[in-house]
Amino acid sequence: MKIAIVIPVYRTPNRWEKISLRQFCKVLGQYDHYLIAPDNLDTSAFQSLWAEYGLSLYEERFAPKYFKGLNEYNQLCLSHEYYVRFLAGGYSHMLIYQPDAFIFKDDLSKWCSKGYEYIGAPNVGKARQNVYSPAMPMRVGNGGFSLRSIPAFMRFFDGQKPVFNLWHVLTSPLIRKPNYWWIVAKALKLRFTGNTPTEVLAHWQGNEDDFWGCLLALSEYALSRPVPEEALQFAFDRFPRELYARIGHLPMGCHAWHKYEYKEFWKPIIDKA
User: What helix, strand, coil percent values describe the chain, rounded to 5?
Assistant: First the structure.
């Protein structure tokens, strides 16, 4: 087991991102970690921050086209090139730590040893009542702070068999859940517009974490993931107060801490970290 932590950036860090990155250096600095940046970005501000902790920061550069916006970044995370670079370095796992993530404790080896192929914070949607629903319509998981098995992702890129089996899609338990009809509809559309991994990627329009964490659950290349209740031990995203009340403690990390309930929940926790 060999872990690479990747930190995708497209600009110099702002004050909130510096808080996240300093916490990263304190908690996860002992791992191999790479700045993922466009070819034309000046990364001296990041290098200086790492130097404060006596750490070396590796860099992997990609074409600037992947950093123009969210859609382009999604394409990077859906590209063969992204994962094969780290596979070539002998890495088995990749932790994506976007600069708006925050790490509380180093449980990384524990999560890698569980054997899951994709782990991220459950996506509870935009309705607060979803947190309390017995059906818990959560999808696993959010890509901003996520752990990925590189060989499992390469299995999809290198795959030869069709992605979607019509019977598999139509008999999936997801088809009985209204919150998932949209992804079932997308799978059926992709099934008939091109059904190889290359064709499905070419026609997909959406977030990369919806692709890996939700769409592929209907496919022959489904990634193994924890159930939402277990994934809450890994990370929070939306509605952190309710999720904290649900499990009674902090997870390993979180995503978008400054975006969701910062003053109401995260600020005193972040200040003490």
Answer: 45, 15, 40
CA dist., res. 28 & res. 230, Å (int):
22
Measured CA to CA, the distance from residue 183 to residue 125 in angstroms comes to 14
User: CA 130: distance to chain centroid?
Assistant: 21
CA 239/CA 234 separation, integer angstroms: 15
Of 110-124, 137-151, 181-195, which range is least confident? Answer: 181-195
The string of DSSP letters for 202-268 reads HH--S-HHHHHHTGGGGSTTPPP---HHHHTTTEE-S-HHHHHHHHSS--SEEE-TTTSSIIIIIHH
Q: Domain coordinates of the chain in residue numbers?
A: 3-158+223-272
Question: Three-state SS for 101?
Answer: strand
User: C-alpha angle with apex 239: 233 to 241, nearest 5 degrees?
Assistant: 75
| Residue 16: strand, helix, or coil | helix
Name the architecture of domain 3-158+223-272.
Alpha-Beta Complex (3.90)
pLDDT in tens, 10-23: 999 999 999 999 99
Q: Report CA-CA distances (Å) from 63 to 9, 59, 113, 155, 203.
A: 13, 13, 33, 24, 21
The whole model's pTM is what? 0.92
Structure-token pair, residue 95: 């932790």
Closest to 139 measured CA to CA, from 174, 172, 111, 190: 174
Dihedral of alpha carbons 42, 96, 138, 152, sign = positive
Inter-residue contact 100 to 24 (CB < 8 Å): no
- Alpha helix ranges (H) inside 97-231: 108-113, 150-157, 166-170, 181-193, 197-203, 208-213, 228-231
DSSP-assigned letter for residue 149:
E
- Within 8 A by CB and 6+ apart from 265, the residues are 240, 241, 244
